Amino acid sequence: MKPILLSLLGVVVALGSGCGRGPSGQSITVAGSTAFQPFAEKLADQYMQSHPEATITVQGGGSSLGIQSALAGTAQVGMADLVTLPPEASGLTAMVAARDGIAVIVNPLNPLKDLSTGQIRDIFNGKIRNWKDAGGEDRPIRVVSRETGSGTRSSFEDIIGGISLLKESLVQDSNGTIRETVANDRDSIGYLSLGLLNDKVRAVKVDGGVCSDEAILAGHYKLVRPIYLLTQANASGVAADFVAYVLSSLGQDTIRRNGLLPAK
Amino acid sequence: MKGTGEKAAEWILRGLAFSALASLLLIAVFIFKEGAPFIFRLGLKDFLLSSDWRPHEGHFGISPMIVASFWVTLGAMLVGAPLGIAGAIFLNEFVPIQVRRIVKPMIELLAGIPSVVFGFIGVMVVAPLIRNHLGGPGLSLLAASLILGIMILPTIISISSDAIASVPRSYREGALALGATRWQSVHMVVLKAARSGIVAGIILGMGRAVGETMAVIMVAGNAVANPRSPLESVRTMTANIAQEMGSATGMHRQALFATGVVLFISIMVLNGLAMAAMKKREVKA
């Protein structure tokens, strides 16, 4: 037993010292929103190229985790994609790093083109259960939603307002599986991050507004959520510098090129 | 010198054996510590019997998930048990040993296929078939039962097959000598003698079905509602924990641990039953 324990201990010590190497305060963790995670990884790579002394680790975990770990200090920068930040986040400095549209999607075979906010609310509440009551074919509606705690879901429900999700709704736990479900089932309706929209599904107009980057930038589409970077109020060093980098024209340009909307 | 080596090996093995036990104990203590107080605070009735699961509004009723776990498991048994037992009988009684030597390892290989692959097949093949031919969303209780039924086949086949193989040759010879046909000797003598082993195999398969998570999340649709037909979507207890754990805090998190407590107890009961069934076989043999 002892030799094994000793060698394990050796490994742990070696790993530990590896992490701690380099000047202190140069290594930070960014955690939270899975919607923003791929963008944060790209931004971190770019930042590290121009700042070789800094190490940035990007983790997912979801918006709630992003807020929790920024509060607890386990991450120096938290990412959250919520329309309204929860009250416990009020002690943190929140900067809008990007914006993201939420597309309401149906199967490409569904002829319906346009829904109002009220119709979307009624569909997700279960008041409208047939497409013909929303101006479509005489077929049942199948609602697909994200899981409780998803940033996309809480933003969607916040903006539409008054949603108490129909119990029979299917629940999928990522943008990708929502897209697959809607792509496979011609009677279904769901929602996902605009950046992940592809031609296997079709986005409907909401209150007459097309879901596109241009429409959002022009203010014609209402399902838009901000993506926040959260730091503790007295943040300094790499954390503050990285946030500044993301907000700079260089960082915003990266965000735009990769399919999200810039903050302004 | 040899003595010390021997001693060291003994201690290492002892340590490893106890570490497995310790981790089981640790898991049990942790789940109960996190989940049990919540159950008592909310009340057993509100937790187990209410069907209202809206964790952000303080409603934590898991009855639809208990019901879902029950039906999905039962469905998996209806698919897996007859196929599994029939397969085991066939492999032991009706094919030459060379065929068995090839087929049985292949079936056991099925156990090594990751559950996410089963889930993928469920989403891509089984669910569309159900949706197009039977109606409903496709991602359903039925789809989950079919996929799980196939997933538990290797467990049922290999344990039943071992039980059937361990029935002494003399039993079969006796039956045949009395003029029984092959099938008569199988179902009147061999199956009766191997019964407890077969039951143990079924119960272990059931344990796997109750606990399976990934494949079920992918194919069951995860709606929190009491199903009115096998074509409707359901969310099992395991799916509920896995889907919501990532973002749950406070009461919600405790509620998920409490779901884990219910799951833990049901799996312990099933394993206990399996062990009891196995023990009976040992006494008999």
What is the H/E order of chain B? HHEEHHHHHHHHHHH
Q: List segments of chain B where confidence is low: pLDDT < 50 over at least 5 consecutive residues.
A: none
Report the principal-axis shape of chain B. Answer: globular
| Spans where pLDDT lies below 50 across 5 or more residues of chain A | 1-24
User: Helices and strands of chain B: which structural class?
Assistant: mainly alpha
What gap, in angstroms, lies between the N and C termini of chain B? 42 Å
Largest sheet of chain A: 10 strands, mixed
Rg of chain A is 21 Å
Determine the most extensive contact between two protein chains: A-B, 27 and 32 residues
Count all strands of chain A and give the number.
Answer: 12
The helix count of chain A comes to 9
Spell the H/E element sequence of chain A. Answer: HEHEHEEEHEHEHEEEHEHHE
Q: Percentage of helical residues of chain A?
A: 25-40%
Largest sheet report of chain B:
2 strands, antiparallel
Q: What's the total helix number of chain B?
A: 13
- Please tell me the overall pLDDT of chain B: 90
Beginning-to-end CA distance, first to last residue of chain A? 60 Å
Can you describe what's shown?
The complex is a heterodimer of chains A (264) and B (285). In chain A, helix 5 (151-160) links the parallel strand 6 and strand 7. Chain A has helices spanning 2-20, 37-50, 63-72, 117-125, 151-160, 175-184, 213-217, 237-247, 249-257, and strands at 27-32, 55-61, 77-80, 92-106, 114-115, 142-146, 170-172, 188-193, 202-203, 205-206, 224-232, 261-262. In chain A, the strands form two sheets. In chain A, strands 1, 2, 3, 4, 6, 7, 8, 9, 11 and 12 form a ten-stranded mixed beta sheet that branches. In chain A, strands 5-10 form a two-stranded parallel ribbon. The model of chain A is unreliable at 1-24 (pLDDT under 50). By secondary structure, chain A is an alpha/beta fold. Chain B is an all-alpha fold. In chain B, helix 1 packs across helix 13 (250-284). The longest helix of chain B has 41 residues, at 2-42. The model of chain B has no long low-confidence stretch (mean pLDDT 90). The interface between A and B is medium-sized, with 27 and 32 residues.
